[in-house]
Amino acid sequence: MSLSAQATSLRSASFFEAGRRNISIPGRIGLTGFGNLEFSATCNPAITTVEPNSDRIAGEVVALIRENLAEKGTSPVRSKVIDTGFQIIARDSL
Fold first, then answer.
1. Does the global pTM surpass 0.90?
2. How many CA atoms lie within 13 A of 10 on its CB side?
3. Contact 33, 50 (CB under 8 A)
């Protein structure tokens, strides 16, 4: 079984609750987080995490805002999919 938690509080609670119940990570369950927070690397076992490309996301948001301001909001909002990428930081929790 594997658990993936985006929210820091849920990931932390899952990690500590597994320890409290003597549920082995990664032996009995795997745990994956999101955001590559410092906690993920420093706990034991270190938690595998998905690291979004935050700089690219920010750049795309700024570009979309500038585009909208340049058009003075006259055009309808367009649906757009932008792949900003991510990286898997493999650690000991899987």
1. no
2. 9
3. yes
CB 89 within 8 A of CB 49: yes
Rounded average pLDDT per 10-residue block, the chain, 94 residues: 78 88 93 88 91 94 86 70 94 92
What's the rounded Cα separation, in Å, for the pair 12 and 43?
10
Residue 54 three-state SS:
helix
Question: 62 is written with which tokens?
Answer: 């700024």
- Torsional sign, CA 56, 59, 61, 67: negative
Structure-token match 């757009």, residue found? 80
